[in-house]
Amino acid sequence: xxxxxxxxxxxxxxxxxxxxxxxxxxxxxxxxxxxxxxxxxxxxxxxxxxxxxxxxxxxxxxxxxxxxxxxxxxxxxxxxxxxxxxxxxxxxxxxxxxxxxxxxxxxxxxxxxxxxxxxxxxxxxxxxxxxxxxxxxxxxxxxxxxxxxxxxxxxxxxxxxxxxxxxxxxxxxxxxxxxxxxxxxxxxxxxxxxxxxxxxxxxxxxxxxxxxxxxxxxxxxxxxxxxxxxxxxxxxxxxxxxxxxxxxxxxxxxxxxxxxxxxxxxxxxxxxxxxxxxxxxxxxxxxxxxxxxxxxxxxxxxxxxxxxxxxxxxx
Length: 315
What we know:
- The structure is a single chain.
- 32% of the residues lie in helices and 27% in strands.
- The chain is built from 11 helices and 10 strands.
- Strands 1-2-3-5-4 form a 5-stranded mixed barrel. Strands 6, 7, 8, 9 and 10 form a 5-stranded antiparallel beta sheet that branches.
C-alpha cells in the first residue's frame, strides 16, 4: 500500500511543451527538463552536419516504445526502421519528449541533441525518419553528458535552436536553382555540376574532425549549406584544374567581429601552377553569414583571389 506522504511527493507526468504565442514574450518550456541544468551554460556555438538518430535513453523507455508500437495500426506501405520509429513518436508525443537524439558525424556519435523547443518537432521527425537525410544542427554546445543520459553514449550535449533535414538530392536541387543564371552563362553542364558539387560537399563534412564547433568548422559547414560560390568555382575549373586543398584562416584586425577566410587552392592540370581563391565568413554569432566587401550587406557569389598579406590580416 502506498504511503499517503509518498504519493503526495510523487512527481506528476511532464506535459508536452507548448510553443508560446507569437509576441507573447513567454519563453517555451524546456524540451528536456531533467537536462536543463546541464545545458544552461553553453560552452560555444555549433553548426554541425551529420545524421540524426533516435535512441532509447533507458530500458523502460524502450519497453514502453515496443508496447505502443504493438498497439499502433500498421500502414499500408512498407516502412523501414526509421520510418516506424518516426510514426510511433508522432503518435505518442510523451515518448518523443523522452527519447535521446544523437547526431552522428562520420559514423561516430558527436552530440546528444536537445531541441530548444517544440517548434522543432516536425524538423526533428523528418531528420530521424529517413536514412538518407542529412541534418544540420545550429545551436550551442554544453558540457559532456553523463553515461546514464543516453545509455552510455559519451558525447557533449547540444541545444539545437534550428534543425534542418535534407537529402542530397534536395540540397543539390536548391543549389542549382540558386546558381541557374551563373551555370547557364558559364555553359556548365548539369551532369558535370551534379558530380562536382556532391563530391565537394562530402569532402567538407566527411572529415571525422569536423564536428562543427570550432570557428573553422562552423565557417566550412555554413559555406557548404549557404554559399553556392565555392561550388561554382569548382565546377568552372573542371577539366583544367583540380581542387588541391581547402584551408581556413582567421582574419585579424577587422574590429570586434570574428571573420574566417575559406581558401580554396586549385592546381593547373598541365602546369601545376596554383590558383587560390577565398571568401569571408562572419562567425561572431550563432548564425554565420557571408561577409561582404567594405561592410556591404550584399553577399558576393564569386570568390576573390587570395594573397598572403599580414597587413590585411590574412596570416
